[in-house]
Design brief:
The complex is a heterodimer. By secondary structure, chain A is α+β, with helices and mostly antiparallel strands. Chain A contains 18 helices and 19 strands. The two termini of chain A are about 30 Å apart. By secondary structure, chain B is mainly alpha-helical. Chain B is globular, with a radius of gyration of 24 Å. Chain B starts with a helix and ends in a 6-residue tail after the last helix. The mean pLDDT of chain B is about 90. Classes of the chains: A alpha+beta, B mainly alpha. The interface between A and B is large, with 63 and 59 residues.
């Protein structure tokens, strides 16, 4: 009786509400750290802040990594590549909420404020919360890159750079480029409530923030004044559900419409469910095993190549990724422009590998294989992967010892130039630019840092440095060539690119998967 | 009673200082630090690392940091989360009611079922009923919580669709938090169906969280009852011709309750300290999950002050439990 009562009440409530508003529920995987995206680096935070609430000067065309206009309707780049002049879209309104009502439209002051607070120590919002470090902005070398940001007129802003940098536009499309309202910030400053900028966001994006109940629910509603038109759904709700099995149950029970990161083992059964759609896309990531090319015998390309040939990548794909992956042959993923498909992967051939090692004069080799202690998109189970590699190496007479450290420690120790052993690690792209993989992970400047192979190859480095400027066509050629050098020199064993699955109710229409890994509900509708 | 209270409260002070040292030291002896974790795969240059450590004040000698922390505590400042940049106390106050609500429901369920089950088992010692109850209790005690929670979700929420999967209330209801207790706030909101929804969301997590304390209470009640039932005064009561119900209910039970209350007190402490697994499975926004997330991220201020707050709650609960002994057994009246 009571059960019936419960169901009837819930059904009644559901019917009443559905008649009033269209609500999309997204079972998100974690809590946002805050709502000022520039303060953070986590995708979960961006999904809840920059994606629904904010817009940038430029954005990535949905489903691609191509830059297209957002709040800037057009831009010009000077011939020397040092000046970028953006023309802002007129009449763009910031959100009107119960805690803020804007009195003016978006203008150049907002753009300047957005970036100035991240680079100018005197800006009242540079340290508006304790420990504000603007990590992404710094990580993309923006403070060194930007010389000045000037207001030409109310709707024109000019960025002057210290050096030409082709990926600059793509950088502006990143989450730290979310344009904030200076008017709102000034109001908070005057009222002594600066930290609200990180708790109650005001942007120009498709959805406006309504409320956040910590670790439980985030509510948004469609922005009625969105420059690209009001969204088809009225309300967007994030139901924070950290466990993936529970997220799946919620999806099956109709408690949410979309869920990210299903358990790989469950993907097939979800695909078989006629009430669901499972979208999939190769993630913009790469998982690799980086040798230390500064330490013998791994300083010899033929030794590294031999080890690469001993690794059975298909077995790793089946066991570790449970099919939700693709074998990697290049250091950049196939969805990225300039991916060189002509490159041939090292074949899996233990016999040939054994011979190559013998020819290189290497016998009785013992080495360490580092396994990360955490699960990452590019490596769902590093320990298991390391075990498979260990047994593969054993077949060619190489003894591998698996070592691991706590995550922070792992990241730190693996940077050491005299590190003992090969490291399992990976990378997820920030802005869809090949520079973001090739220079960050394999450039000479990154040795002792993110370049875990400690690999500095003059030929490769010249190519990627040259590719920092020029047209996309010119850059593509250079990057393709760089991938050939990479494969020949083999500083890494490229293992896999993961495939990302997005199960959702079949009623959800218009969802586009983001190759950069974000979850964006602009343009999504629910079929009645 | 008053002198007992003063003595106990006096003892709390050194205990607190001890906890500050343990909480402060604990998170710092773990390898890795918040700055390294924040940077992730991207990494930091040594200069940037130094600058950030300095910005957070972690470059100073450890005793200076400890003194600063203690000084802040004395001024009522529990610090601010490195991750969310919000005051630790605010976060605690936001999440704690959820934990309390669930813990209270669980402990009530455990008591209401556990004590009668223990009494029945003891009064029919060796019988089939006794063996069934104790067998079930053993299964309950050894149940892996995560598996148990998921199983209940799959059966009751998935197949039967009797209960919601997770969360504290249906997303259809939206009202401001007043007390933080969803059952009370839903009533205050006046929204139709909100209270029923809040209660239905409590059912599965309560069962899961109550499982282990229920088993412990049932077993403790049984063994304690058996001990008491062998006492001379119980034989005397029976010899006087009292009904079995009076013998057990009045004479035996009251004397058998002391160890049971101790067990209940300890369970309440543990449940309030955060039922991490239950909170994770049911997406229950409580302090257990909050603490674990903070440890993973090396969010020093949250870990050190959060532990202190939780310890304070556990100590208060234990004090209350000690005080109830006297109500039940006059011989230990303070």
């Amino acid at each position: 009786m009571k059960t019936k009562l419960l169901l009837t009440t819930a059904l009644f409530a559901a019917l009443t509400v559905s008649a009033q508003a269209k609500t999309l529920v997204y079972c998100s995987e974690g809590s946002p750290e805050g709502f000022d995206p520039a303060l953070y680096t986590a995708g979960t935070t961006f999904d809840a802040s920059s994606k629904p609430v904010y817009s940038g000067l430029v954005q990535f065309k949905p489903g691609t990594t191509q830059v297209e206009p957002d709040l800037a309707e057009s831009w010009e780049v000077s011939d020397d590549g040092m000046e970028y002049t953006f023309k802002l879209r007129p009449g763009v309104k910031f959100h009107s909420t119960d805690f803020f009502t804007p009195t003016r439209d978006l203008n150049a002051d907002d753009v300047i404020f957005t970036f100035d607070r991240q680079m100018n120590k005197d800006n009242p919002f540079n340290a508006y919360v304790e420990g504000a470090s603007w990590e992404y902005f710094s990580g993309m070398s923006m403070p060194d890159l930007i010389k000045s940001i000037d207001k030409v007129d109310d709707l024109t802003v000019k960025f002057v750079l210290n050096r030409p940098e082709a990926p600059f536009l793509a950088n502006l499309g990143m989450d730290f480029g979310s344009i904030m309202s200076k008017e709102y910030a000034d109001k908070l400053d005057a009222g002594g409530m600066k930290s609200d900028l990180n708790q109650k966001p005001i942007g120009t994006g498709p959805f406006q923030f309504v409320a956040y109940q910590k670790d439980a629910v985030i509510r948004y509603k469609a922005n009625p004044d969105y420059y690209a038109g009001k969204q088809a759904i009225d309300d967007l709700v994030f139901a924070i559900t950290t466990d993936n099995s529970v997220r799946q149950q919620k999806l099956l029970a109709g408690e949410c419409h979309v869920m990210p990161y299903p358990n790989p083992a469950d993907v097939q059964s979800l695909k078989d469910n006629p009430d669901l759609t499972v979208m999939e896309q190769e993630g913009l990531n790469v998982g690799y095993l980086a040798y230390n090319t500064m330490v013998a015998p791994f300083d010899k390309p033929e030794v590294r190549k031999a080890l690469n040939m001993a690794i059975n990548k298909q077995a790793i794909l089946d066991v570790v990724f449970q099919g939700a992956g693709k074998i990697a042959k290049n250091p950049i993923p196939p969805t990225m422009w300039s991916y060189n498909d002509a490159v041939q992967d090292d074949p899996y051939d233990p016999e040939a590998a054994k011979k190559m090692l013998a020819d290189a004069g290497v016998s009785d080799l013992s080495m360490k294989v580092w396994a990360m202690p955490v699960q990452r998109p590019y490596n769902p189970n590093a320990r298991r992967m390391a075990e498979l590699i260990q047994s593969d190496f054993d077949k060619i007479g190489v003894k591998a010892e698996i070592v691991s450290y706590e995550w922070g420690e792992y990241l730190d120790r693996s940077k050491a130039k005299d590190r003992d052993g090969a490291v399992l690690l990976g990378w997820t792209g920030d802005n869809g630019d090949p520079d973001n993989f090739l220079a960050v992970l394999l450039g000479c400047d990154a040795v002792g840092g993110a370049n875990r192979a400690q690999w500095c190859n003059e030929e490769f480095n010249n190519l990627i440095m040259k590719a920092k400027s020029g047209t996309q066509e010119e850059r593509t050629k250079l990057y393709e060539e760089a991938q050939v050098v990479f494969k020949r020199e083999a500083p890494w064993a490229t293992i896999a690119h993961s495939v990302v699955h997005m199960p959702m109710s079949a009623k959800v229409k218009g969802y586009v998967m983001d190759p950069l890994g974000g979850h964006n509900f602009e343009g999504v509708d629910i079929e009645e | 009673m008053l002198s007992f209270l003063i003595k106990r409260i006096g003892l709390l002070i050194p205990t607190f200082i001890g906890i500050t040292i343990v909480a402060f030291g604990f998170v710092r002896v773990l390898p890795g630090d918040p700055v390294l974790l924040m940077a992730g795969e991207r990494g930091l240059t040594p200069e940037r690392y130094e600058a950030l450590m300095k910005q957070f004040g972690y470059d100073r000698p450890i005793w200076v940091q400890y003194w600063d922390y203690l000084n802040g505590l004395l001024h009522g400042d529990l610090g601010q989360s490195l991750v969310t940049k919000k005051p630790v106390l605010d976060e605690f106050m936001q999440l704690f009611p959820a934990t309390v609500e669930l813990a209270l429901c669980a402990i009530i369920l455990a008591i209401v079922i556990g004590i009668p089950a223990g009494i029945i088992a003891a009064s029919r010692r060796g019988s089939f009923v006794d063996q069934s109850i104790m067998g079930t209790a053993l299964v309950g005690y050894s149940m892996p919580i995560f598996w148990w929670g998921l199983l209940l979700i799959i059966v009751f929420s998935g197949w039967l669709q009797w209960t919601p999967v997770s969360g504290r209330i249906s997303l259809l209801y939206f009202f401001p938090q007043v007390t933080g207790f969803m059952t009370i706030d839903s009533l205050l909101s006046g929204q139709k169906g909100a209270f029923t929804s809040a209660v239905s969301h409590l059912i599965l997590p309560t069962i899961v969280l109550a499982t282990i304390p229920l088993a412990v209470i049932a077993r403790q009640t049984r063994s304690s009852m058996l001990e008491v039932l062998g006492e001379d005064y119980v034989r005397t009561a029976r010899a006087k011709g009292l009904s079995e119900r009076r013998v057990i209910g009045i004479h035996a039970l009251r004397n058998a309750m002391i160890p049971v209350i101790t067990v209940i007190g300890l369970s309440v402490g543990t449940l309030l300290a955060g039922a991490i697994l239950t909170e994770t499975i049911f997406s229950w926004p409580g302090i257990g999950k909050w603490m674990v997330d903070s440890i993973t991220r090396r969010d020093y201020p949250v870990v050190q002050s959060g532990l202190l707050l939780i310890a304070a709650v556990v100590m208060v609960v234990n004090l209350l439990v000690d005080m109830t002994y006297g109500l039940i057994n006059p011989r230990i009246r303070h």
